[in-house]
Amino acid sequence: MLLIKCPFCGPRPELEFSYGGEAHIARPQDPMSLDDEAWTEYLYIRSNPRGVHAERWRHINGCGRFFNARRNTISDEILETYMIGGSPAPVSEEKDRSPKGGAV
Amino acid sequence: MNYRLASGGRMDRTRPLQFTFDGNRYTGFAGDTLASALIANGVHLVGRSFKYHRPRGFLSAGSDEPNALVGVGGIASRYTPNLCATQVELYDGLVAESQNRWPSLSFDVGRVNDVFARFLSAGFYYKTFMWPAAAWKSLYEPMIRKAAGLGKAPSAPDPDRYTQVYVHCDVLVVGAGPSGLAAALAAGRSGSKVILCDEQDQLGGTLLSESEAVIDGQAAAEWLARAIGDLSALPNVTLLPRTTAFGWYPHNFLGLCQRVKDHLGEVDSNAPRERMWQVRAREVVIATGAIERPLLFPDNDRPGIMMAEGARIYLNRYGAVAGTRAVVFTSCDSAYRAAIELKAAGVQVTTIADVRPSPKGPWIERARAAGIEVRGSTVVTGTTGHLRISHVDLVDEVSGKSETLPCDLLLMSGGFTPSVHLFSQSRGKLVYDEALKVYVPGQSVERERSVGACRGIFDLGAAIASGFSGGLDAVKASGGSPVEEATFVVLAESFGQNGVIGRPGKAAKYAGRAWVDFQNDVTTKDIELATREGFRSIEHVKRYTTTGMATDQGKTSNMNALGIVSQTLGVPVDKVGLTTFRPPYTPTTFGVFAGQSRGDLFDPVRKTSIHDWAEEQGAVFEDVSLWKRARYFPRRGEDMHAAVKRECAATRQSVGIFDATTLGKIEVVGKDAAEFMNRMYTNAWTKLEPGRLRYGVMLREDGFIMDDGVVGRMAADRFHVTTTTGGAARVLAQMEDYLQTEWSDLEVWLTSTTEQWAVIAVQGPNARKVLDPLVQDIDLSAAAMPHMSVREGHICGIPMRLFRVSFTGELGFEVNVPMGYGRAVWEAIHASGKAHDITPYGTETMHVLRAEKGYIIVGQETDGTVTPDDAGLSWAVGKAKKDFVGKRSLARPAMTSSDRKQMVGLLTVDPTVVLEEGAQVVADPQEPIPMTMIGHVTSSHWSATLGRSIALGLVRNGRARIGTRLTVPMPSGNVTVEVVRPVFYDPEGKRLDG
Predict the structure, then answer these.
(1) In the CATH scheme, what is the homologous superfamily, with its name and number, of domain B659-849?
(2) Which residue stretches of B252-409 are H helix?
(3) Which of B40, B43, B69, B56 is nearest to B315 (CA)?
(4) pLDDT of A103
């Protein structure tokens, strides 16, 4: 079970949250002006990366607020959580946890 | 022969315990396991193998045991199959039985499988039973299931209780062997909040069977006692024996299963049987030790052939010797220690066969000095003995000389495999250590470190030191202040770490099957066959041969299977790869996962405030999401059909009363409430006046119907939204999603009011007459309160929102009162309705009445692929609106195709035939199977009002087919139906305005 830091409530177990899919996919301002391809792109196409993924979560069994998280889909590490409408930290600051297993 | 020594062991000899195995009575001591007690009674034959039904005995003394699976329990409800006898703690009166044998353990008819072994090789499922296909279900599968298998499931409900607790700690130490204890001491002394768990009944791991090592000037047992004493005295340390860390889940979340009372016997007590600890640890120290590997040689699975270290544990911890005359086959020094200790205990240990060319070193000299013959370059090429080993064949691989020695015990050691399960579950990367010939932890992903033998550190002193350092490292990483490093003076003869994986020596040239996975009956031949047949990936070999897939998860077999694949393919072990370790580490009960969530507590139950009244009237309930809803109210002797017929007639002719409380309700409030509703629903809301209702349809962004419900405008800035019973949470979530993430500029607040309003539907031509005397301040007349209007006022003095709305097609009202007044108001209305024979009705009647009117139910007529137009709801879509959720999708070509399934009515030509919901509709019943299915039946009822059956369905281009006939093919024959408009009763809607 993931430990997710709600920006409003602090770290809470995953079962308090619901997943909201990929983040930063804004609903088009005027959907009717989009052609079918562009609308399909908005509606169905997701990046599904192997690695860092910006995604939406909602603290549904807590404060009820949506927020964004950047999660590494390989390790499940959550690099940060931030407000809806906010921007993630610059990617250059990507930190990888230093290996520990063999070093003690 | 007495297999229990006069002294020694950690059992309590003052507390003898009686137990039975397969009906035979035996005696053991408190502190024994079932396995050690059986061994002390000279019993080795404990099971039959999974596939070939070969006699099997104890292989080890721990949770890695693959053979000794037994059923335990004298009471049917407490019978537990597939328990490891090596882990079952003895209690007085314990009843155990062997498994997978018939008629008895010593004479098992299934043994015939072994004779036909060549037909049961790897992948035999796929090869042998291909044809005829029909025989698979009726013949092959039942036969295989009967012949192969483990224990029987218990036949009675589990009477025990299981609990779950959540805990947080700074440092979780898994495994209380020497390194785990040291880690816990380090973290505990540093003041960290520590949990130390171990799967065994006592903490100590290998120290529990240590004979000669001296730690800090104390014998191992004394040091252990002092360490446990020190840890117990620390208030910040929790010690959890009998607790298996079975699984690692993301973000240092570990599942621990504590066996609370199994060791007390089958007693009733308030204590739970097991407790699941769900631990969120800042840092974890993995100290899970290592598992000794069997050696691969022909017929290496007979009773009496066991791991050298296992025999040593039975000797030192339980004072029991596993045999009288022993031969040892080894590839490393550690087995020499077992041989020397057994010899000293009086076992005739004649020979150590060592696969290494010329074994040298202190252990070899000590063995020779003890009078044990040591032979280098020597391998076992076969064994004999039916229910127990009687002879072993040795070959000197240099001279080629062979010899057969008598024995009743053959000890083996292929070296030790670090228990990396938890590390691997945490997604850490394993690396192959060429010198140790094992995988050890490499790069971490989670916040953990491995110490001691599970990291490949086998020397006792080094293991303790690594444990202490690991504990300090964990303290530091968790933000604590570590105490000083400590040094431990350990006097123990160390071992060179040798060992083999795969076949030892030149064993490949000796004929015969060598068992790799004892529990799943996988032999060297199966794995070699798999590689010959082209399997290369170890994951494929595993699935094809089933090696490593039994309840022991390949603890003793995985590395040997890898070794065979490597040897057969000529590929280095680390290039073969490694199978994935998955939870649980050892079998874990469903009970402990379920915890309290069983029976009545499986799911929360939601009841309306009118529920008890309905129950008192004898209503039959059904589950609708978590709600209990009254389905019908049978009177004496009525079945559902009769009750529904009566309830329908009463509502159509006079008045019915229905509990609609379960409908979802959301209060949408704010300056921009109407704009928000415009965006969320297909309908136009701007012009809806306060005091009016409108039927609203909500789509998903993909254009399909998600929910519907009647919405009341209470004020310019306030809407009372209703949703379907099951859709309430979903609708609120979708609203919140758009409000928070897309339109946060809108001033709107959403509040779930489902639990705040009790809703009483009063429906039928006399509805107004029933309510009128009770309502104080609302004019109910048709002129003052037309269909689809809402008023606020009082009923019986209680504040009310009164909807004039109908889901029956009759004149109808829905009385909304605060939840706590639900029953009182219901009873008042019911009393007022007595004059009109007011009839309570349930969901079944509600379904029939609305189907007669062609009103859809979301989830019944819709299935997530239905657009408003498909459902005949185009009128509810605001054409002039620029945008709403789902609007753009409705314009996609596929959504406007004339070939879409559209909702129609279906009337069977024979009016007495009631169609089955879900039945398919075809145009041409003469078409060969599979026919072209052009639609399906979504609702079907007997309509007492119309004196015939009615049905709704979705049919391709259905509206254009109105007036034509289609066919519903059923097993009993074709049913001809006429396609009609989906309104069967009062199509003009005159009755609504009564």
Answers:
(1) Probable tRNA modification gtpase trme; domain 1 (3.30.1360.120)
(2) 308-318, 334-344, 362-369
(3) B40
(4) 34
CA distances from B589 to B262, B273, B425, B427, B593 (A): 12, 10, 19, 24, 7
| Nearest-angstrom CA–CA distance, B310 and B948 | 77
Helix axes B843-853, B640-653, angle to 10 degrees: 60
Per the DSSP assignment, residues forming a β-bridge with B710 are B695
- In tens, the pLDDT along B695-721 reads 999 999 999 999 999 999 999 999 999
DSSP letters of B575-607? HH--PPP-S-SS---HHHHHTT-SGGGSS--B-
pLDDT (0 to 100) of residue B709: 97
Among B41, B63, B153, B60, smallest CA distance to B585 is for: B63
Q: Which amino acid, B653?
A: Q
Instruction: Report d(CA B954, CA B566) in Å as an integer.
Output: 59
Give the SS3 label for residue B278.
strand
* Class of A3-88 in CATH: alpha beta
Which residue on chain B is closest to A74 by alpha carbon? Answer: B427
ipTM value:
0.91
Backbone φ and ψ for B835, nearest 5 degrees, come out as -60, -25
Q: Distance (Å, rounded) from C-alpha B920 to C-alpha B938?
A: 10
Closest CA to B844 of B980, B706, B940: B940
* B91: pLDDT strictly greater than 60: yes
Output the pTM of the full model: 0.91
**The CATH number of domain B13-110, selected from 3.10.20.440, 3.40.50.300, 3.40.190.10, 3.90.1530.10:** 3.10.20.440
Q: Which positions ≥6 away from B530 have C-beta within 8 Å?
A: B122, B123, B540, B541, B544, B545
Q: What angle do CA B67, B548, B56 make, to 5 degrees?
A: 15
Using the Cα atoms of residue B459, residue B465, residue B469 and residue B472 in order, give the sign of their dihedral. Answer: positive
Which positions 39-58 of A are in contact with B (Cβ < 8 Å)?
Answer: 39-40, 43, 56, 58
Structurally, what CATH architecture does the domain formed by B513-587 represent?
Answer: Orthogonal Bundle (1.10)
Residue B262 has which token pair?
């199994």
Chain A residues within 8 A of B432 when measuring between CB atoms: none
Angle of CA points A67, A70, A73, to nearest 5°: 125
**Among candidates B449, B738, B882 on the partner chain, residue whose Cβ is nearest the Cβ of A101:** B449
Amino acid at residue number B806: S
Q: What is the CATH number of domain B164-290+418-481?
A: 3.50.50.60
Which alpha helices (H) appear in B570-698, and where do they start and end? 573-576, 590-594, 611-616, 640-653, 673-680
Angle at B979 (CA atoms; ends B978, B984), nearest 5 degrees: 95
B994 pLDDT above the threshold of 70:
no
**Residue ranges per domain, chain B?**
13-110, 113-145, 164-290+418-481, 294-414, 513-587, 659-849, 893-993
Question: B174: part of which helix (H) or strand (E)?
Answer: strand B162-174
Alpha-carbon span B71 to B69, nearest angstrom:
7
DSSP code at position B154: P
**8 A C-beta contact, residue B285 and residue B478:** no
CATH homologous superfamily for B893-993?
Answer: Aminomethyltransferase beta-barrel domains (2.40.30.110)
Token representation of residue A37: 């391809």
Residue B102, pLDDT score? 79
Amino acid occupying residue B610: I
Which H/E stretch holds residue B771?
A: helix B767-771
Contact B737 A103 (CB under 8 A): no
Closest alpha carbon within chain A to B729 = A60
Looking at the partner chain, which of B443, B444, B733 has a beta carbon nearest the beta carbon of A60? B733
Angle between helices B538-545 and B524-532 (to 10 degrees): 120
A102/B455 Cβ within 8 A: yes
